[in-house]
Write a structure and sequence with these properties.
It contains 2 helices and 8 strands; from the N terminus they run βαββββαβββ. With 118 residues, the chain is an alpha+beta fold. The chain has one domain: 2,3-Dihydroxybiphenyl 1,2-Dioxygenase, domain 1. This is VOC family protein.
């Protein structure tokens, strides 16, 4: 397993203002509107920022790690559980097409471990 991308999550208290800032000031493109605002670099589509609306996830992850495929998500989940790490959002196939779970790293940072479903 290896991470294919790591995506930071920004606070989503002002989705419209954030869209305007990231597009008009930083030159990113809107790649997704729902369920989150997803922005990408026009020259490097793996350079992304995700802005979830307030209250979408509780707890809210700080960033996402795309591990490539759903089987790798399952393997990461099994490894996290085996090590006694705190899984704070269960292994789930989301209706928008990702398999994911949230885990706290040893320092307490919440990470969304995910892969797109085929």
């Amino acid at each position: 397993m290896s991470a294919s991308r790591i995506v930071p999550y920004a606070d989503g208290t002002d989705i419209d203002g954030s869209r305007e800032f990231y597009v008009e000031v930083l030159g990113l493109q809107v790649a997704m509107h729902e369920p989150v605002l997803g922005l990408t670099s026009p020259t490097n589509p793996t350079a992304q920022v995700i802005i979830p609306p307030p209250g979408m996830d509780n707890p809210q992850p700080r960033f996402g790690v795309d591990v490539g495929d759903p089987a790798a998500v399952d393997a990461a989940h099994a490894a996290a559980v085996e090590r006694g790490l705190s899984v704070v959002y269960p292994l789930t196939d989301e209706p928008w097409g990702v398999r994911r779970f949230f885990v706290k790293d040893p320092s307490g940072t919440i990470i969304n471990v995910l892969a797109h479903l085929e």
